[in-house]
Design goal:
12 helices; 8-stranded antiparallel beta sheet; alpha+beta
Amino acid sequence: ETIEAMGDKTEARRRMQAAGVPIVPGVTDAVADPDEAETVAGEIGYPVLLKAAAGGGGKGMRVVEDSAELARAFEAASREALAAFGDGSIYLERFLDAPRHIEIQVMGDRFGKVLHFGERECSIQRRHQKLIEEAPSPVLTPELRARMGAAAVKAAEAVDYLGAGTVEFLYKDGEFYFLEMNTRLQVEHPVTELVYGVDLVEMQLRVAGGEPLELSQDAIVPSGHAMECRITSEDPHQGFLPSTGRIDYVRLPAGPGVRWDGGIINGFEVGLHYDPLLGKLIVYAPTREAAIRRMARALDEMVIRGLETCVPFHRRVMDEGDFRAGDLSIRYLEDHPDLMEGEEAEAILEAAAVTAALLE
């Protein structure tokens, strides 16, 4: 029942509104057709965001700047949603320009207790899929963390939540709005584990087995900084197009504060039939600046040969000024297109020329 309630985005909005959790201005019911969508858009104001009621991950989602685009965008979003989720229902929200994507980790037991384990900054995305996550967020104060955490706990309590889950928010100018709830453990959970010193997998197994959560909320305090890069078989120089083939050689980084969650080995065949995620490179350090340096070093050490990966993109991000300053939004990639340009070939040629000159 919980998964059904939070899996249907319009039902989730209704539940959150009733529980007093802030939501993005919009409608909580699916709209029937482009005409109704145009009426609703006029009421909430352009630009608007069309979203699939039955799913997420960017499927069935369109930004519409004015009424001239609405009918075509509605039909396209509905077709995509139907193909992806078997349900073409669409609802509308006001489009927030360049917000941050910040999510809160929650855990609930069978005795009605719900705890939160702080936030993860997930603003660096492509096609609404996350690329880099970190904890804590460089923008949240302890007071704001407490407010968002309390809202996430309220959201989980509204659906009698049991186990590990994530409440996702959009954040802009000191205000936050409920986006959706993922009723599962997420890819980026390791950064929370490192910053809060907990094993979320063990914890969710224990609560599923009927054990109570013994921690108190006051005892859950962040320490240090963790960062995760999703290593995917995609070519960032070609718009993150999938790359397939046989992995000829893998060298994984190691050392203090470096964690690798993955399942690839030499000879592994990467095809088109699965998600492109090869593994997760996670680092932990006392400060954000130290974590960035550690991640840069780990990415320099990582070698995956036989297909294209996003490793070069991640390495460039670690040197980029806005990222290092914590100035992030979900438009980060659009605002930094140079991060996806192919400079590696030039660097390799320069190194080869130097080597040739020295040999000569």
